[in-house]
Amino acid sequence: MAQDLELLLHDNTFAGYTDKQLAIVEAAVDVFAAKGYANSSTHEIAKRAGVAEGNIFSKFGNKRGLLDAIINPVLRSIFPDMVHNLQTDEFQRHYTNLREFISVLVGRRYEFMKSNARVMKIFIAEVVYNTDLRQKVVARFPEGYWQLLFGEFDDLRQRGMLVDWDNSTVMFYLIASAAGIIGGAMLFNQEIAPHTQTQMIDAITRALSPA
Amino acid sequence: MAQDLELLLHDNTFAGYTDKQLAIVEAAVDVFAAKGYANSSTHEIAKRAGVAEGNIFSKFGNKRGLLDAIINPVLRSIFPDMVHNLQTDEFQRHYTNLREFISVLVGRRYEFMKSNARVMKIFIAEVVYNTDLRQKVVARFPEGYWQLLFGEFDDLRQRGMLVDWDNSTVMFYLIASAAGIIGGAMLFNQEIAPHTQTQMIDAITRALSPA
Amino acid sequence: MAQDLELLLHDNTFAGYTDKQLAIVEAAVDVFAAKGYANSSTHEIAKRAGVAEGNIFSKFGNKRGLLDAIINPVLRSIFPDMVHNLQTDEFQRHYTNLREFISVLVGRRYEFMKSNARVMKIFIAEVVYNTDLRQKVVARFPEGYWQLLFGEFDDLRQRGMLVDWDNSTVMFYLIASAAGIIGGAMLFNQEIAPHTQTQMIDAITRALSPA
Amino acid sequence: MAQDLELLLHDNTFAGYTDKQLAIVEAAVDVFAAKGYANSSTHEIAKRAGVAEGNIFSKFGNKRGLLDAIINPVLRSIFPDMVHNLQTDEFQRHYTNLREFISVLVGRRYEFMKSNARVMKIFIAEVVYNTDLRQKVVARFPEGYWQLLFGEFDDLRQRGMLVDWDNSTVMFYLIASAAGIIGGAMLFNQEIAPHTQTQMIDAITRALSPA
DNA sequence: CATGAATGAGCGTTCATTCAT
DNA sequence: AATGAATGAACGCTCATTCAT
């Protein structure tokens, strides 16, 4: 939990929360991740948080509001406000090769997910049945982001370092295989050893290299 | 649904079902896939099936029994009884190269999943929170299966066609990336065009080829 | 069961019953006695009888009708049609002493109850909550019966063999203590050994003898 | 009801109950006694108590818990914790004759049952079908209790005041006939007039006196 | 007569939510 | 803000009863 909360606490969502309210969020993350949102009761969450059930509703309005309070920071964190990062972060530098590029993109996401496994599980379970949320995720990537990312692809391809596919197909393979690898590991509660991480990134790199 | 039922009807699980009982299964697949098992009510399923609610319980015992009736055929179909298939099927032939091997293994699963998208969604959602079911899936792969699969890996590796990793790491990448690709497509209700299928299999092949 | 049925079969209620219908009655006696009428299901009775559930309703109308078919013979048997017995049976002879009188009255009822333990249990449980049935029981004892019984009491009292109480009080003690003794034994599924039977009858005799 | 509650309120089981929770117990005693536990619905109990049905379950867990809350005080009251009462109460004094002894033992129970008729009815009906509860009743009489009671019997017998039977047979007659008398009275909702009480105790005394 | 699939009212129970304290 | 008793709609489920075969 400490890890999960560490992340959530960096989000301004939780500024001004009382100790009890934070305890509710902590407990909710535990319970939602263990049994799924629909199978969790506000009674159990309140008990685990050591507070009265009413507190959940005075702060979060309803059970759904509590879920949103957990999910929204994920939306903001894993898909950080791309507009602000455009000039900095992932695209400010020039990658000398495909492997370095993949390593940064995937590695960063893996670190995040590893540190926030329970919150991520809640988020993903919600995304599966929630079309609105799915569209919100897509909406977090503004036009400009794709331009920069695809620009990076184009650059690598011109230098003969990237397979000759549609940019969107490249992106799909990158996201899908990385998500499969990370999700698979999480499903069995296992970390990916550093050596294996290297192997995985090597493999994705080969996959996206020209034939 | 037509597609889903087509599959399920080939499974002997549904032999002897009355029309109403089949209608319940059809409706349940619809509702479970749309809202998740926990958020679905037997009342809604019965209404959609045009049937009295009691029928669900006289046939399936309880709500969970209805889920099992949907899930068990998946277990039998996507992970067929490997013990009996050892000499036949996927391992009877000799693959001339890695790509052919991957193409058969992955392609076959993709076809199945595409035809049974809703049932698969139900199955996967259940696996995430159900440790028992996860172990059942694992148990469907007996020792002998791994020996044959890994023997195939060893053979390909000796012929210089497979990356020099642990067999289990190879397998993990293969399953995880394929699952990510197929799951990602299903999440957005999209088929993978034949051309893209080729690209994906090419990519996985490169990923698992020696450096 | 054999014993219970032996009794019930002597009642003309069961004349013309098919084998299946008799099997239903047998099964119902078992189940009602074990779990109580309200906690027994027609499904279980039908299963135990090896017949389809519908048979219960085509023969007995409803579940209550099945209970009545079991209870009515008890009403007729344990409280036999007193009018017909007036000249015969219990009051035709002259008892030489109180003990002999009690021995016949109580002994006969005990034998009946021992042979029909399960049916009696069903009957008693029903009587507790069923005012109508209670009144039916009372109604089985016509005016003439009391006259004869109380006449017997008066006779014994005049001969100095019976306590100087109201006849109705004598009767109450007689019935209540005998019922308590027999019921207590049945509650723990135990027979009363012949030696103990003698002791009990001796005791009741002393209880009702003049001080 | 007032009477019943008077008793139950003296039991610490009901300390800390809210008004509504007490109303539930009151209503449950009414309904259970009138129709039997199995035929009573929580809906009816809640309605009669003027309370939402959910309150039953938040306080008592389930319907059975409500029955237990009614039954347990009976267990504690009618069969008080004998271990602690060994030196006091019924056995501390020396009875000068059998009648006095019976009068205390039976009279005390009769007073209790008369004041708690409905609760007793519920208790007895439950005992008939509940083997566990029957054993609990038996378990409330520890070894030491029997020793004292049988010691009292032995003492009376040596003084020529008690019939020459097994102690357990004496006890059985005592309990069974008293229970039959009290139960019979309760079955027809009638009190036993003081004069009749005297007669009954006299009768039991004679029954257990030497021939 | 016999069957058992089908029905649906009613049950015990859960739980998000409200609100007086 | 904090409490938890109270609420009642909705749930999964049971079971007496019906009826087409």
Automatic annotation (TrEMBL), chains A, B, C, D:
PROSITE patterns: HTH_TETR_2. Residues 41-60 bind DNA. This is Helix-turn-helix domain containing protein. InterPro entries: Homeodomain-like_sf, HTH-type_TetR-like_transc_reg, HTH_TetR, Tet_transcr_reg_TetR-rel_C_sf. The lineage of its organism: Bacteria, Bacillati, Bacillota, Bacilli, Lactobacillales. The keyword Membrane applies. The chain crosses the membrane at residues 170-188. It comes from the Bacteria. Gene3D superfamilies: Tetracycline Repressor, domain 2.
